[in-house]
Amino acid sequence: MSATHALRSRLRALALTAGLIAAGAAAAQTGSGYFRYGDARLSLAHAIAVIEEPSDQADERRTLVFLSAQPLDAAAVAAAFDAMDAVREQAPAGGYVRLCIAADGSECGLFYSPEGFNSGGYGDLALQRNEAARIAGRWQLAEGDFLGTPYDFDLRFDTPIAPAPGSALPAGGGAPGAAYNAWLEALAKGDVAALRRMGGEDARGRFPEDDAGTVKESLKSLRDGEPLQARIARGRQHGDQAVLWVEGVDRDDIRRRGRVLMRRTAAGWQHAESDLSSVDE
Fold it and tell me: 63 versus 213: which is more confidently predicted?
């Protein structure tokens, strides 16, 4: 190979590398701006986004954008049953701001930590991109007041939406779905021994063998929020964790709809957590 040909090859390689770097930068997440609440001011430099699906209804799907001073692990947040809990576990210095973007592109509120401040319906949100894989925009408010505390913000974001990991479960939710309905059946019957086996790590605390009063209160508390039997619209499994989107009627004839978290242990699939809401019919 001649020196000229070798030089040209190296130049092509450098150009390709530069192109890949540029493409990676274009796909990278960016966030900027600030949030001020009283004397506290959080300067923002990073953004991530994930999808939240509180039910199987398409119009309830929303995008959560998190802005912070330090980078957040978007994959960990996307994999979590509760995105807010996953962000809090990462404990970003100075706090974070969570923006909620509804399925129709409107805002569904923001949350500012560490002050624990919720707001909605204030300021101007303008989206430049609102796609399945990426969201970009700006939300700003020049002057606001909450019970005498002034606040203002200018929030800018341009970030890919981290996909939830895992694969779809078969119709009916597969083994996790069958385990959830078996747990509901045991709950309806008051089969405490079965609930201890199928209720996950906290079942021993909910149903202690030496405290009938606690067992009674636990049964009442769980029955109040769970359907008697669930129709499982779909499910997704990631390793030893599965999320089910369910709907059913509880013992008070109230329709419940939402998500259920199941975990696989040596004893099989166990109920870990439910996030269900009542449905107006």
Answer: 63
